[in-house]
Please model this.
Amino acid sequence: MSTRSISTMWTLMRRELWESPGAFKWAPITILGLTLFFIVFGLILGSRFDNEMAFTLDAIRQFADVPTDQKRLFVTGALFAVSGLFFQILLLVLLFYLSSCLYDERKDRSILFWKSLPVSDTMTVASKVLTACLLAPAIYLVIVVITQLIVLLIATVYGFMAGINPFTAFWLPASLPKLWSVMALGLLIQGLWLLPVYAWLVFCSSWAPRVPILVAVAVPAVISLLQHAWSLLSSFSMPELNVGLIILKRLGSGILPSNIGWRVESSGNNIDLADVEFSEELFMSFSNSLEYLARPEMWVGIGIALALLAGSIWFRRRATDT
Amino acid sequence: MSLTIHARDLKRYYGSNRAVDGIDLEIPSGRIVGLIGPNGAGKTTALKAILGLTGFDGQLEVLGRKPDKDRDELMEDVCFIADVAVLPRWARVWQVIEMTERLHPRFSRERCMHYLKNTKVKQNTKVKALSKGMVVQLHLALVMAIDAKLLVLDEPTLGLDILFRKRFYSNLLNEYFDEERTILITTHQVEEVEHILTDLLFIKDGKLVLNATMDAVHERYREVMVKPDHVEEARAMNPIHERVLFGRHIFLFDGGDIARLKEIGELHRPSVADLFVALMGEEYENGESTEEAA
Model:
Protein backbone atom coordinates (compact mmCIF):
# COMPACT_ATOMS: atom_id res chain seq x y z
CA MET A 1 0.00 0.00 0.00
CA SER A 2 1.30 3.43 -0.88
CA THR A 3 1.58 6.25 1.66
CA ARG A 4 -1.42 7.89 0.09
CA SER A 5 -3.66 4.85 0.45
CA ILE A 6 -2.62 4.52 4.09
CA SER A 7 -3.43 8.16 4.77
CA THR A 8 -6.73 7.80 2.87
CA MET A 9 -7.61 4.72 4.92
CA TRP A 10 -6.76 6.51 8.16
CA THR A 11 -8.93 9.48 7.17
CA LEU A 12 -11.83 7.17 6.27
CA MET A 13 -11.53 5.38 9.61
CA ARG A 14 -11.46 8.69 11.51
CA ARG A 15 -14.54 9.64 9.57
CA GLU A 16 -16.30 6.60 11.06
CA LEU A 17 -15.41 7.82 14.56
CA TRP A 18 -16.71 11.28 13.75
CA GLU A 19 -19.92 9.84 12.40
CA SER A 20 -20.61 7.58 15.40
CA PRO A 21 -19.17 9.23 18.51
CA GLY A 22 -21.88 7.58 20.59
CA ALA A 23 -20.74 4.09 19.66
CA PHE A 24 -16.99 4.58 19.79
CA LYS A 25 -16.45 7.36 22.33
CA TRP A 26 -19.39 7.87 24.66
CA ALA A 27 -20.40 4.21 25.09
CA PRO A 28 -17.01 3.05 26.51
CA ILE A 29 -16.62 6.24 28.56
CA THR A 30 -20.08 5.65 30.03
CA ILE A 31 -19.18 2.08 30.96
CA LEU A 32 -15.99 3.38 32.55
CA GLY A 33 -18.04 5.83 34.59
CA LEU A 34 -20.57 3.14 35.58
CA THR A 35 -17.87 0.65 36.54
CA LEU A 36 -16.07 3.16 38.75
CA PHE A 37 -19.38 4.32 40.21
CA PHE A 38 -20.32 0.81 41.29
CA ILE A 39 -16.86 0.09 42.69
CA VAL A 40 -16.80 3.31 44.73
CA PHE A 41 -20.44 2.81 45.72
CA GLY A 42 -19.64 -0.71 46.88
CA LEU A 43 -16.66 0.45 48.87
CA ILE A 44 -18.63 3.21 50.57
CA LEU A 45 -21.50 0.83 51.30
CA GLY A 46 -19.02 -1.69 52.69
CA SER A 47 -17.40 0.88 54.95
CA ARG A 48 -20.80 1.61 56.54
CA PHE A 49 -21.08 -1.95 57.80
CA ASP A 50 -17.40 -2.37 58.52
CA ASN A 51 -16.50 -0.32 61.58
CA GLU A 52 -13.30 1.63 60.90
CA MET A 53 -12.81 -0.77 57.98
CA ALA A 54 -11.21 -3.27 60.31
CA PHE A 55 -12.61 -6.22 58.41
CA THR A 56 -11.65 -4.88 54.99
CA LEU A 57 -8.11 -4.01 55.99
CA ASP A 58 -7.73 -7.37 57.69
CA ALA A 59 -8.82 -9.13 54.52
CA ILE A 60 -6.28 -7.12 52.54
CA ARG A 61 -3.51 -8.06 54.94
CA GLN A 62 -4.49 -11.72 54.66
CA PHE A 63 -4.57 -11.42 50.90
CA ALA A 64 -1.00 -10.06 50.93
CA ASP A 65 0.08 -13.33 52.55
CA VAL A 66 -1.49 -15.83 50.12
CA PRO A 67 0.80 -17.64 47.65
CA THR A 68 1.83 -15.73 44.54
CA ASP A 69 -0.05 -17.89 42.02
CA GLN A 70 -3.30 -17.40 43.91
CA LYS A 71 -2.68 -13.67 44.08
CA ARG A 72 -2.16 -13.69 40.34
CA LEU A 73 -5.36 -15.66 39.76
CA PHE A 74 -7.34 -13.26 41.93
CA VAL A 75 -5.93 -9.97 40.61
CA THR A 76 -5.87 -10.86 36.91
CA GLY A 77 -9.30 -12.45 37.30
CA ALA A 78 -10.69 -9.29 38.83
CA LEU A 79 -9.15 -7.12 36.11
CA PHE A 80 -10.51 -9.44 33.41
CA ALA A 81 -13.92 -9.23 34.99
CA VAL A 82 -13.71 -5.44 34.82
CA SER A 83 -13.12 -5.70 31.05
CA GLY A 84 -16.05 -8.05 30.43
CA LEU A 85 -18.83 -5.49 30.12
CA PHE A 86 -16.74 -3.31 27.80
CA PHE A 87 -16.18 -6.08 25.27
CA GLN A 88 -19.78 -7.25 25.40
CA ILE A 89 -20.99 -3.74 24.68
CA LEU A 90 -18.33 -3.42 21.96
CA LEU A 91 -19.75 -6.46 20.18
CA LEU A 92 -23.28 -5.07 20.41
CA VAL A 93 -22.16 -1.65 19.18
CA LEU A 94 -20.32 -3.22 16.24
CA LEU A 95 -23.36 -5.25 15.17
CA PHE A 96 -25.44 -2.07 14.92
CA TYR A 97 -22.64 0.00 13.42
CA LEU A 98 -21.88 -2.50 10.66
CA SER A 99 -25.50 -3.11 9.76
CA SER A 100 -25.98 0.58 9.00
CA CYS A 101 -22.53 1.50 7.68
CA LEU A 102 -23.36 1.37 3.96
CA TYR A 103 -27.07 2.04 4.43
CA ASP A 104 -27.10 5.48 6.07
CA GLU A 105 -25.17 7.13 3.25
CA ARG A 106 -27.73 5.84 0.76
CA LYS A 107 -30.63 6.92 2.92
CA ASP A 108 -29.46 10.52 3.43
CA ARG A 109 -27.99 10.69 -0.12
CA SER A 110 -24.56 11.71 1.20
CA ILE A 111 -23.27 8.81 -0.91
CA LEU A 112 -23.24 11.34 -3.76
CA PHE A 113 -20.75 13.43 -1.79
CA TRP A 114 -18.58 10.46 -0.84
CA LYS A 115 -18.59 9.24 -4.41
CA SER A 116 -17.46 12.67 -5.60
CA LEU A 117 -14.18 12.07 -3.80
CA PRO A 118 -11.38 10.03 -5.38
CA VAL A 119 -11.85 7.07 -3.05
CA SER A 120 -12.54 3.60 -4.41
CA ASP A 121 -15.46 1.48 -3.25
CA THR A 122 -13.00 -1.16 -2.05
CA MET A 123 -11.30 1.40 0.19
CA THR A 124 -14.65 2.55 1.56
CA VAL A 125 -15.84 -0.95 2.42
CA ALA A 126 -12.42 -1.86 3.84
CA SER A 127 -12.46 1.21 6.07
CA LYS A 128 -15.71 0.05 7.68
CA VAL A 129 -14.39 -3.45 8.30
CA LEU A 130 -11.05 -2.22 9.64
CA THR A 131 -12.85 0.19 11.95
CA ALA A 132 -14.82 -2.75 13.36
CA CYS A 133 -11.87 -5.14 13.56
CA LEU A 134 -9.02 -2.82 14.63
CA LEU A 135 -9.89 0.77 15.51
CA ALA A 136 -12.99 0.22 17.67
CA PRO A 137 -11.39 -2.64 19.67
CA ALA A 138 -8.26 -0.49 20.13
CA ILE A 139 -10.32 2.38 21.55
CA TYR A 140 -12.23 0.07 23.87
CA LEU A 141 -8.97 -1.57 24.96
CA VAL A 142 -7.43 1.81 25.82
CA ILE A 143 -10.44 2.66 27.97
CA VAL A 144 -10.34 -0.79 29.59
CA VAL A 145 -6.66 -0.18 30.41
CA ILE A 146 -7.52 3.19 31.96
CA THR A 147 -10.30 1.56 34.01
CA GLN A 148 -7.98 -1.19 35.22
CA LEU A 149 -5.32 1.35 36.21
CA ILE A 150 -7.88 3.31 38.22
CA VAL A 151 -9.09 0.10 39.91
CA LEU A 152 -5.48 -0.74 40.79
CA LEU A 153 -4.94 2.78 42.14
CA ILE A 154 -7.97 2.42 44.39
CA ALA A 155 -6.60 -0.94 45.56
CA THR A 156 -3.23 0.75 46.20
CA VAL A 157 -4.83 3.33 48.48
CA TYR A 158 -6.50 0.52 50.44
CA GLY A 159 -3.21 -1.36 50.49
CA PHE A 160 -1.43 1.61 52.06
CA MET A 161 -4.20 1.92 54.64
CA ALA A 162 -3.76 -1.75 55.48
CA GLY A 163 -0.01 -1.20 55.78
CA ILE A 164 0.98 -3.75 53.11
CA ASN A 165 3.14 -3.29 50.03
CA PRO A 166 0.63 -2.67 47.22
CA PHE A 167 3.28 -3.27 44.58
CA THR A 168 3.84 -6.90 45.52
CA ALA A 169 0.21 -7.45 46.52
CA PHE A 170 -1.54 -5.96 43.49
CA TRP A 171 0.66 -4.50 40.75
CA LEU A 172 3.11 -7.37 40.34
CA PRO A 173 0.46 -10.13 40.35
CA ALA A 174 -1.58 -8.11 37.85
CA SER A 175 1.20 -8.79 35.29
CA LEU A 176 -0.15 -5.89 33.28
CA PRO A 177 1.97 -6.23 30.11
CA LYS A 178 0.86 -9.83 29.70
CA LEU A 179 -2.74 -9.06 30.63
CA TRP A 180 -2.95 -6.31 28.04
CA SER A 181 -1.22 -8.30 25.31
CA VAL A 182 -3.54 -11.25 25.94
CA MET A 183 -6.52 -8.94 25.58
CA ALA A 184 -5.08 -7.26 22.47
CA LEU A 185 -4.37 -10.60 20.81
CA GLY A 186 -7.80 -11.84 21.83
CA LEU A 187 -9.45 -8.82 20.22
CA LEU A 188 -7.44 -9.24 17.02
CA ILE A 189 -8.33 -12.89 16.65
CA GLN A 190 -11.93 -12.19 17.63
CA GLY A 191 -12.05 -9.77 14.69
CA LEU A 192 -11.04 -12.63 12.39
CA TRP A 193 -13.32 -15.15 14.07
CA LEU A 194 -16.37 -12.91 13.77
CA LEU A 195 -15.41 -11.59 10.32
CA PRO A 196 -18.10 -13.64 8.52
CA VAL A 197 -20.75 -12.19 10.83
CA TYR A 198 -19.37 -8.67 10.35
CA ALA A 199 -19.18 -9.16 6.59
CA TRP A 200 -22.76 -10.43 6.48
CA LEU A 201 -23.93 -7.24 8.20
CA VAL A 202 -21.90 -5.04 5.83
CA PHE A 203 -23.30 -7.02 2.91
CA CYS A 204 -26.89 -6.50 4.09
CA SER A 205 -26.28 -2.78 4.64
CA SER A 206 -24.97 -2.47 1.09
CA TRP A 207 -28.28 -3.41 -0.56
CA ALA A 208 -31.12 -3.65 1.96
CA PRO A 209 -33.89 -1.24 0.95
CA ARG A 210 -34.61 -0.41 4.60
CA VAL A 211 -33.82 -1.47 8.19
CA PRO A 212 -30.75 -3.52 7.26
CA ILE A 213 -30.35 -5.01 10.74
CA LEU A 214 -33.80 -6.62 10.47
CA VAL A 215 -32.90 -8.00 7.06
CA ALA A 216 -29.62 -9.29 8.46
CA VAL A 217 -31.42 -11.12 11.25
CA ALA A 218 -34.48 -12.18 9.28
CA VAL A 219 -32.69 -13.88 6.38
CA PRO A 220 -30.76 -16.46 8.47
CA ALA A 221 -33.74 -16.81 10.84
CA VAL A 222 -36.10 -17.68 7.98
CA ILE A 223 -33.55 -20.02 6.41
CA SER A 224 -33.03 -21.89 9.65
CA LEU A 225 -36.77 -22.13 10.27
CA LEU A 226 -37.24 -23.56 6.78
CA GLN A 227 -34.39 -25.97 7.44
CA HIS A 228 -36.09 -27.12 10.62
CA ALA A 229 -39.45 -27.46 8.95
CA TRP A 230 -38.00 -29.39 6.04
CA SER A 231 -36.01 -31.73 8.14
CA LEU A 232 -38.89 -32.40 10.51
CA LEU A 233 -41.21 -33.10 7.59
CA SER A 234 -38.80 -35.23 5.61
CA SER A 235 -37.04 -37.27 8.29
CA PHE A 236 -38.73 -36.27 11.53
CA SER A 237 -35.47 -35.09 13.03
CA MET A 238 -33.59 -31.90 13.76
CA PRO A 239 -31.27 -30.68 11.01
CA GLU A 240 -27.63 -31.54 11.48
CA LEU A 241 -26.32 -28.24 10.22
CA ASN A 242 -28.44 -25.19 10.86
CA VAL A 243 -27.50 -21.76 9.60
CA GLY A 244 -29.06 -19.87 12.49
CA LEU A 245 -27.42 -22.07 15.11
CA ILE A 246 -24.04 -21.86 13.40
CA ILE A 247 -24.18 -18.06 13.52
CA LEU A 248 -25.38 -17.98 17.12
CA LYS A 249 -22.74 -20.46 18.17
CA ARG A 250 -20.05 -18.40 16.51
CA LEU A 251 -21.22 -15.24 18.24
CA GLY A 252 -21.46 -17.11 21.54
CA SER A 253 -18.04 -18.66 21.26
CA GLY A 254 -16.37 -15.38 20.48
CA ILE A 255 -13.02 -14.98 22.10
CA LEU A 256 -13.59 -12.01 24.39
CA PRO A 257 -14.93 -11.53 26.96
CA SER A 258 -15.35 -15.29 27.30
CA ASN A 259 -11.82 -16.33 26.44
CA ILE A 260 -11.69 -18.86 29.15
CA GLY A 261 -9.75 -22.03 28.70
CA TRP A 262 -12.44 -24.58 29.37
CA ARG A 263 -14.59 -25.85 26.60
CA VAL A 264 -18.22 -26.58 27.25
CA GLU A 265 -19.83 -28.75 24.62
CA SER A 266 -23.26 -27.35 23.85
CA SER A 267 -24.66 -30.86 23.60
CA GLY A 268 -23.10 -32.06 26.84
CA ASN A 269 -25.40 -32.66 29.76
CA ASN A 270 -22.85 -33.16 32.49
CA ILE A 271 -20.69 -30.16 33.11
CA ASP A 272 -18.61 -30.94 36.11
CA LEU A 273 -17.07 -27.73 37.32
CA ALA A 274 -15.06 -29.70 39.86
CA ASP A 275 -12.96 -30.97 36.94
CA VAL A 276 -11.96 -27.46 35.98
CA GLU A 277 -8.68 -26.52 37.46
CA PHE A 278 -8.83 -22.88 38.42
CA SER A 279 -5.67 -21.07 37.51
CA GLU A 280 -4.86 -17.87 35.74
CA GLU A 281 -4.13 -19.98 32.64
CA LEU A 282 -7.90 -20.14 32.18
CA PHE A 283 -7.83 -16.66 30.73
CA MET A 284 -4.23 -15.39 30.89
CA SER A 285 -3.11 -17.49 27.98
CA PHE A 286 -2.14 -16.58 24.46
CA SER A 287 -2.77 -20.10 23.27
CA ASN A 288 -6.48 -19.85 24.11
CA SER A 289 -6.77 -17.26 21.37
CA LEU A 290 -4.14 -18.65 19.02
CA GLU A 291 -5.88 -22.01 19.14
CA TYR A 292 -8.70 -20.46 17.09
CA LEU A 293 -6.29 -19.98 14.20
CA ALA A 294 -5.86 -23.73 13.98
CA ARG A 295 -9.57 -24.40 13.58
CA PRO A 296 -10.79 -25.08 10.08
CA GLU A 297 -14.00 -23.13 10.83
CA MET A 298 -11.87 -20.01 11.25
CA TRP A 299 -10.60 -20.19 7.69
CA VAL A 300 -13.91 -21.28 6.21
CA GLY A 301 -15.40 -18.23 7.93
CA ILE A 302 -12.76 -15.90 6.53
CA GLY A 303 -13.41 -17.30 3.06
CA ILE A 304 -17.15 -16.65 3.39
CA ALA A 305 -16.38 -13.18 4.75
CA LEU A 306 -14.21 -12.26 1.76
CA ALA A 307 -16.94 -13.39 -0.64
CA LEU A 308 -19.56 -11.32 1.21
CA LEU A 309 -17.25 -8.28 1.22
CA ALA A 310 -16.67 -8.64 -2.52
CA GLY A 311 -20.47 -8.61 -2.87
CA SER A 312 -20.69 -5.48 -0.73
CA ILE A 313 -18.14 -3.72 -2.94
CA TRP A 314 -20.13 -4.75 -6.00
CA PHE A 315 -23.30 -3.21 -4.53
CA ARG A 316 -21.46 -0.09 -3.31
CA ARG A 317 -20.15 0.51 -6.82
CA ARG A 318 -23.68 0.47 -8.24
CA ALA A 319 -25.34 2.34 -5.40
CA THR A 320 -26.54 5.88 -5.89
CA ASP A 321 -29.15 7.93 -4.16
CA THR A 322 -32.12 6.17 -5.72
CA MET B 1 -7.24 18.21 -29.36
CA SER B 2 -8.12 16.28 -26.22
CA LEU B 3 -11.77 15.77 -25.49
CA THR B 4 -13.15 16.16 -22.01
CA ILE B 5 -16.20 14.05 -22.74
CA HIS B 6 -16.48 11.67 -25.64
CA ALA B 7 -19.63 9.60 -25.97
CA ARG B 8 -20.67 7.35 -28.82
CA ASP B 9 -24.15 5.84 -28.81
CA LEU B 10 -24.46 6.21 -25.04
CA LYS B 11 -27.45 4.27 -23.73
CA ARG B 12 -29.03 3.53 -20.40
CA TYR B 13 -32.27 1.61 -20.21
CA TYR B 14 -34.24 0.90 -17.06
CA GLY B 15 -36.39 -1.98 -18.21
CA SER B 16 -38.50 -0.59 -21.01
CA ASN B 17 -37.77 3.01 -19.99
CA ARG B 18 -35.08 4.40 -22.28
CA ALA B 19 -33.62 7.04 -19.98
CA VAL B 20 -30.69 7.72 -22.30
CA ASP B 21 -31.20 6.47 -25.82
CA GLY B 22 -28.10 6.74 -27.98
CA ILE B 23 -26.29 10.02 -27.33
CA ASP B 24 -23.25 11.12 -29.32
CA LEU B 25 -21.24 13.83 -27.67
CA GLU B 26 -17.87 15.48 -28.03
CA ILE B 27 -17.04 18.18 -25.54
CA PRO B 28 -13.56 19.71 -25.73
CA SER B 29 -11.92 21.49 -22.81
CA GLY B 30 -12.59 25.15 -22.07
CA ARG B 31 -16.34 25.03 -22.63
CA ILE B 32 -19.35 25.81 -20.49
CA VAL B 33 -22.04 23.45 -21.64
CA GLY B 34 -25.69 23.71 -20.72
CA LEU B 35 -27.61 20.44 -20.74
CA ILE B 36 -31.24 21.46 -20.91
CA GLY B 37 -34.30 19.27 -21.00
CA PRO B 38 -37.72 18.76 -19.45
CA ASN B 39 -38.15 16.65 -16.34
CA GLY B 40 -37.52 12.99 -17.02
CA ALA B 41 -35.70 13.67 -20.28
CA GLY B 42 -32.60 11.78 -19.13
CA LYS B 43 -30.42 14.68 -17.95
CA THR B 44 -29.58 13.23 -14.57
CA THR B 45 -29.06 9.74 -15.96
CA ALA B 46 -26.66 11.08 -18.57
CA LEU B 47 -24.75 12.99 -15.89
CA LYS B 48 -24.64 9.92 -13.68
CA ALA B 49 -23.15 7.90 -16.50
CA ILE B 50 -20.52 10.60 -17.05
CA LEU B 51 -19.70 10.61 -13.33
CA GLY B 52 -19.45 6.83 -13.07
CA LEU B 53 -22.47 6.58 -10.81
CA THR B 54 -24.41 4.30 -13.08
CA GLY B 55 -23.66 1.66 -15.67
CA PHE B 56 -24.31 2.26 -19.38
CA ASP B 57 -24.07 0.75 -22.84
CA GLY B 58 -22.15 2.24 -25.70
CA GLN B 59 -18.87 4.10 -25.50
CA LEU B 60 -18.08 6.80 -23.02
CA GLU B 61 -14.77 8.32 -22.07
CA VAL B 62 -14.35 11.20 -19.67
CA LEU B 63 -10.87 12.74 -19.61
CA GLY B 64 -9.64 9.58 -21.29
CA ARG B 65 -11.01 7.29 -18.58
CA LYS B 66 -13.92 4.88 -18.38
CA PRO B 67 -16.21 6.36 -15.73
CA ASP B 68 -17.94 3.12 -14.74
CA LYS B 69 -14.66 1.31 -14.11
CA ASP B 70 -12.34 4.03 -12.80
CA ARG B 71 -14.64 6.34 -10.87
CA ASP B 72 -12.14 6.83 -8.07
CA GLU B 73 -9.33 7.88 -10.43
CA LEU B 74 -11.68 10.02 -12.46
CA MET B 75 -12.80 11.93 -9.38
CA GLU B 76 -9.32 13.41 -9.01
CA ASP B 77 -10.12 15.52 -12.06
CA VAL B 78 -13.89 15.77 -11.90
CA CYS B 79 -16.08 17.52 -9.34
CA PHE B 80 -19.81 17.44 -9.11
CA ILE B 81 -22.68 18.91 -7.19
CA ALA B 82 -25.92 16.99 -7.35
CA ASP B 83 -29.33 18.58 -7.44
CA VAL B 84 -29.77 18.24 -3.69
CA ALA B 85 -27.56 19.06 -0.77
CA VAL B 86 -25.72 15.81 -0.14
CA LEU B 87 -23.11 16.80 2.41
CA PRO B 88 -23.15 14.41 5.37
CA ARG B 89 -25.57 15.90 7.86
CA TRP B 90 -23.83 14.56 10.95
CA ALA B 91 -20.52 16.26 10.16
CA ARG B 92 -19.30 19.61 11.35
CA VAL B 93 -18.12 22.14 8.77
CA TRP B 94 -14.46 21.79 9.75
CA GLN B 95 -14.74 18.00 9.52
CA VAL B 96 -16.14 18.17 5.99
CA ILE B 97 -13.30 20.51 4.98
CA GLU B 98 -10.68 18.36 6.62
CA MET B 99 -11.98 15.14 5.05
CA THR B 100 -12.04 16.73 1.61
CA GLU B 101 -8.52 18.07 2.13
CA ARG B 102 -7.19 14.68 3.17
CA LEU B 103 -9.06 12.65 0.57
CA HIS B 104 -8.66 14.94 -2.43
CA PRO B 105 -5.11 15.63 -3.65
CA ARG B 106 -6.14 18.73 -5.59
CA PHE B 107 -8.05 20.48 -2.84
CA SER B 108 -6.78 23.82 -1.56
CA ARG B 109 -7.85 24.81 1.93
CA GLU B 110 -6.90 28.45 1.35
CA ARG B 111 -9.19 28.73 -1.65
CA CYS B 112 -12.03 27.08 0.22
CA MET B 113 -11.62 29.49 3.14
CA HIS B 114 -11.50 32.37 0.67
CA TYR B 115 -14.90 31.40 -0.76
CA LEU B 116 -16.36 30.82 2.71
CA LYS B 117 -15.03 34.11 4.09
CA ASN B 118 -18.01 36.13 2.93
CA THR B 119 -20.62 33.64 4.09
CA LYS B 120 -22.23 33.00 7.44
CA VAL B 121 -21.00 29.39 7.49
CA LYS B 122 -19.22 28.78 10.81
CA GLN B 123 -16.55 26.12 11.19
CA ASN B 124 -18.02 24.38 14.20
CA THR B 125 -21.62 24.17 13.01
CA LYS B 126 -23.07 20.82 12.04
CA VAL B 127 -24.21 20.55 8.44
CA LYS B 128 -27.74 19.66 9.58
CA ALA B 129 -27.92 22.97 11.45
CA LEU B 130 -27.06 25.02 8.34
CA SER B 131 -29.76 26.54 6.19
CA LYS B 132 -30.21 25.11 2.72
CA GLY B 133 -28.48 28.10 1.16
CA MET B 134 -25.51 27.77 3.50
CA VAL B 135 -25.12 24.07 2.71
CA VAL B 136 -24.97 24.92 -0.98
CA GLN B 137 -22.46 27.71 -0.27
CA LEU B 138 -20.31 25.26 1.64
CA HIS B 139 -20.52 22.63 -1.08
CA LEU B 140 -19.69 25.15 -3.79
CA ALA B 141 -16.74 26.45 -1.77
CA LEU B 142 -15.46 22.88 -1.43
CA VAL B 143 -15.88 22.14 -5.10
CA MET B 144 -14.43 25.41 -6.38
CA ALA B 145 -11.39 24.86 -4.17
CA ILE B 146 -10.62 21.70 -6.11
CA ASP B 147 -8.42 22.13 -9.13
CA ALA B 148 -10.56 19.94 -11.40
CA LYS B 149 -10.72 19.68 -15.17
CA LEU B 150 -14.44 18.99 -15.33
CA LEU B 151 -17.08 20.46 -13.06
CA VAL B 152 -20.57 18.98 -13.27
CA LEU B 153 -23.40 20.99 -11.75
CA ASP B 154 -26.84 19.39 -11.60
CA GLU B 155 -29.33 22.14 -10.68
CA PRO B 156 -26.71 23.81 -8.48
CA THR B 157 -28.79 26.78 -7.42
CA LEU B 158 -32.14 25.10 -6.89
CA GLY B 159 -34.04 26.80 -4.11
CA LEU B 160 -31.59 29.64 -3.60
CA ASP B 161 -32.39 33.32 -3.71
CA ILE B 162 -31.63 35.50 -6.70
CA LEU B 163 -28.75 37.41 -5.05
CA PHE B 164 -26.93 34.23 -4.30
CA ARG B 165 -27.56 32.78 -7.75
CA LYS B 166 -26.18 35.86 -9.48
CA ARG B 167 -23.08 35.89 -7.30
CA PHE B 168 -22.58 32.18 -7.80
CA TYR B 169 -22.52 32.42 -11.58
CA SER B 170 -20.28 35.46 -11.59
CA ASN B 171 -17.85 33.70 -9.23
CA LEU B 172 -17.93 30.66 -11.44
CA LEU B 173 -17.13 32.70 -14.51
CA ASN B 174 -14.58 35.12 -13.09
CA GLU B 175 -12.74 33.11 -10.50
CA TYR B 176 -13.09 29.50 -11.53
CA PHE B 177 -13.47 29.07 -15.23
CA ASP B 178 -10.51 29.07 -17.64
CA GLU B 179 -9.67 27.43 -20.96
CA GLU B 180 -8.31 24.34 -19.20
CA ARG B 181 -11.58 23.55 -17.51
CA THR B 182 -14.97 22.40 -18.68
CA ILE B 183 -18.22 23.06 -16.88
CA LEU B 184 -21.35 21.04 -17.53
CA ILE B 185 -24.53 22.55 -16.10
CA THR B 186 -28.12 21.39 -15.99
CA THR B 187 -30.71 23.81 -14.73
CA HIS B 188 -34.31 24.82 -15.17
CA GLN B 189 -33.43 28.48 -14.74
CA VAL B 190 -32.17 28.81 -18.28
CA GLU B 191 -32.24 32.63 -18.30
CA GLU B 192 -29.54 32.75 -15.66
CA VAL B 193 -27.02 30.60 -17.45
CA GLU B 194 -27.57 31.44 -21.08
CA HIS B 195 -25.14 34.36 -20.99
CA ILE B 196 -22.29 32.23 -19.71
CA LEU B 197 -22.83 29.14 -21.86
CA THR B 198 -20.57 28.42 -24.81
CA ASP B 199 -22.43 25.28 -25.87
CA LEU B 200 -26.02 24.18 -25.75
CA LEU B 201 -27.42 20.67 -25.54
CA PHE B 202 -31.15 19.97 -25.60
CA ILE B 203 -32.19 16.53 -24.50
CA LYS B 204 -35.61 15.00 -24.93
CA ASP B 205 -36.73 11.42 -24.33
CA GLY B 206 -33.13 10.34 -23.93
CA LYS B 207 -32.02 11.79 -27.25
CA LEU B 208 -30.12 14.97 -28.08
CA VAL B 209 -32.39 17.35 -29.97
CA LEU B 210 -29.83 20.13 -30.26
CA ASN B 211 -26.07 20.00 -29.92
CA ALA B 212 -24.40 23.22 -30.99
CA THR B 213 -22.22 26.09 -29.83
CA MET B 214 -24.02 29.23 -28.76
CA ASP B 215 -22.53 31.07 -31.75
CA ALA B 216 -23.97 28.49 -34.11
CA VAL B 217 -27.31 28.70 -32.33
CA HIS B 218 -27.39 32.48 -32.78
CA GLU B 219 -26.35 32.06 -36.36
CA ARG B 220 -29.03 29.52 -37.09
CA TYR B 221 -32.12 30.54 -35.15
CA ARG B 222 -33.74 33.93 -35.53
CA GLU B 223 -36.65 35.47 -33.75
CA VAL B 224 -38.74 37.97 -35.61
CA MET B 225 -41.36 40.26 -34.11
CA VAL B 226 -43.58 40.52 -37.14
CA LYS B 227 -45.57 43.60 -38.11
CA PRO B 228 -49.33 42.88 -37.95
CA ASP B 229 -49.85 43.07 -41.70
CA HIS B 230 -47.09 40.51 -42.41
CA VAL B 231 -48.31 37.71 -40.16
CA GLU B 232 -49.70 35.52 -42.94
CA GLU B 233 -46.57 36.02 -44.98
CA ALA B 234 -44.43 34.99 -42.00
CA ARG B 235 -46.52 31.87 -41.46
CA ALA B 236 -45.88 30.89 -45.04
CA MET B 237 -42.11 30.95 -44.44
CA ASN B 238 -42.12 27.79 -42.26
CA PRO B 239 -41.48 29.20 -38.80
CA ILE B 240 -40.71 26.58 -36.20
CA HIS B 241 -42.70 28.42 -33.57
CA GLU B 242 -45.21 31.18 -33.22
CA ARG B 243 -46.35 32.99 -30.09
CA VAL B 244 -48.30 36.11 -29.34
CA LEU B 245 -47.09 38.74 -26.89
CA PHE B 246 -49.13 41.91 -26.23
CA GLY B 247 -50.89 41.44 -29.55
CA ARG B 248 -47.60 41.16 -31.46
CA HIS B 249 -46.80 37.93 -33.27
CA ILE B 250 -43.36 36.54 -32.63
CA PHE B 251 -41.99 33.89 -34.95
CA LEU B 252 -38.95 31.70 -34.59
CA PHE B 253 -37.15 30.61 -37.74
CA ASP B 254 -34.57 27.92 -38.30
CA GLY B 255 -32.35 29.63 -40.88
CA GLY B 256 -34.17 31.70 -43.47
CA ASP B 257 -33.34 34.69 -45.58
CA ILE B 258 -32.13 37.49 -43.30
CA ALA B 259 -32.97 40.31 -45.71
CA ARG B 260 -36.50 38.98 -46.13
CA LEU B 261 -37.01 38.54 -42.39
CA LYS B 262 -35.84 42.09 -41.72
CA GLU B 263 -38.50 43.36 -44.10
CA ILE B 264 -41.39 41.74 -42.29
CA GLY B 265 -40.38 42.69 -38.74
CA GLU B 266 -37.74 43.26 -36.08
CA LEU B 267 -34.97 40.66 -35.87
CA HIS B 268 -33.79 39.41 -32.45
CA ARG B 269 -31.60 36.73 -30.99
CA PRO B 270 -33.94 34.14 -29.55
CA SER B 271 -33.50 33.42 -25.85
CA VAL B 272 -32.60 29.89 -24.92
CA ALA B 273 -35.90 29.62 -23.07
CA ASP B 274 -37.89 30.50 -26.19
CA LEU B 275 -35.80 28.16 -28.28
CA PHE B 276 -36.42 25.46 -25.73
CA VAL B 277 -40.16 25.96 -25.93
CA ALA B 278 -40.03 25.97 -29.71
CA LEU B 279 -37.96 22.81 -30.03
CA MET B 280 -39.35 20.83 -27.12
CA GLY B 281 -42.81 22.22 -26.60
CA GLU B 282 -44.56 20.93 -29.69
CA GLU B 283 -45.45 17.65 -28.10
CA TYR B 284 -47.15 19.38 -25.19
CA GLU B 285 -48.99 21.75 -27.51
CA ASN B 286 -50.15 18.88 -29.69
CA GLY B 287 -51.24 17.08 -26.58
CA GLU B 288 -53.28 20.07 -25.54
CA SER B 289 -54.92 20.46 -28.91
CA THR B 290 -55.92 16.81 -29.12
CA GLU B 291 -57.44 17.11 -25.70
CA GLU B 292 -59.36 20.16 -26.80
CA ALA B 293 -60.53 18.37 -29.91
CA ALA B 294 -61.73 15.47 -27.83
Observations:
- Residues 17-262+277-318 of chain A form one domain.
